[in-house]
Design a protein that fits this description.
about 280 residues, Rossmann fold, four-stranded antiparallel beta sheet, single chain, alpha/beta
């Protein structure tokens, strides 16, 4: 039987009360991710600050998306995937045996690379997730609040019954963000959320992220160095380990330092376009 994540948090908080520590939105300790016998991500130790935007960058194939999906146990859906180490939220290991992964994914929402609205109305795209998660309040109000938070309300308020597929790509992605917001997460994961969008839609998503971080922690994977530099507060640089060929974080710092005074030569070469 699963234990409520909230109950685990309260239990952990009470046992740690005598030893106060810095609480992060999410923290990894010696995190290793495997697909079968293949080590995909190796020995990641990160401390993600609350209500900030953290970017994960690095060349293709270095494990960025695999790491991102580990934060809310999306890798559970991949056959043979397994995790060693810890992913902590409020001091609770999200991979504990009695933790409900469905609750983890409610608390840590995700927006994917390509917009993936449900084949339903705009209204139902927001309402459906909230409904199955037991929301008992005024659904009309919740839908409006989520769409406003995603900067989409004014564009769709008169066509809420229309199919979500009638929206533009940029609007669909903002609808997916609104859908994530509607179940009231604490953290929003974004995997290349603007890679399939035009420059104007990309700018809207970036502006939206800046608004959202007032209330949410955002972790974004991006190949776009300019985007990482523009929107993020912190940046994690990933590379393949030369011996194991597993992805690992080689440098983590505030974004300005990563882009102007990186400690690792490989980071400097990557962010300046010398390779990658």
């Amino acid at each position: 039987m699963f234990v409520s994540l909230r109950e685990k948090e309260e239990s952990t908080t009470s046992t740690q009360a005598a030893q106060p520590t810095q609480e992060y939105a999410i923290e990894t300790r010696n995190l290793n991710i495997y697909y079968g016998d293949f080590l995909a991500v190796q020995d990641v130790n990160l401390q993600i600050q609350k209500q900030k935007i953290t970017a994960i960058i690095g060349p293709s194939g270095c494990g960025k998306s695999t790491l991102l999906r580990a934060f809310n146990r999306m890798n559970d859906f991949v056959n043979g995937a397994r995790v060693e180490g810890e992913v902590l939220m409020h001091g609770v290991n999200l991979y504990g045996k009695d933790i409900d992964p469905v609750e983890v994914r409610r608390r840590i929402g995700m927006v994917f690379q390509k917009p993936n609205p449900f084949p339903k109305s705009i209204y139902e795209n927001i309402a459906w997730g909230a409904r199955i998660n037991g929301y008992k309040g005024n659904m009309d109000d919740l839908v409006e609040q989520a769409l406003r938070a995603a900067a989409l309300w004014n564009e769709v308020k008169d066509k809420l019954k229309r199919n979500a597929y009638e929206l533009s790509g940029g609007q669909q992605q903002r609808l997916c963000i609104a859908r994530a917001i509607a179940v009231r997460p604490e953290i929003i994961l974004m995997d290349e959320p603007a890679s399939s969008l035009d420059p104007i839609s990309t700018l809207r998503i970036e502006e939206l992220m800046q608004e959202l971080k007032k209330n949410y922690t955002i972790i974004i994977v991006t190949h776009n160095m300019q985007q990482a530099a523009r929107v993020s507060d912190y940046t994690a640089m990933m590379m393949l380990d030369s011996e194991t060929r597993a992805g690992t974080v080689i440098e983590f710092n505030d974004t300005k330092t990563i882009f102007t005074r990186p400690r690792d030569k490989r980071t400097e070469d990557y962010v300046t376009g010398r390779f990658g």
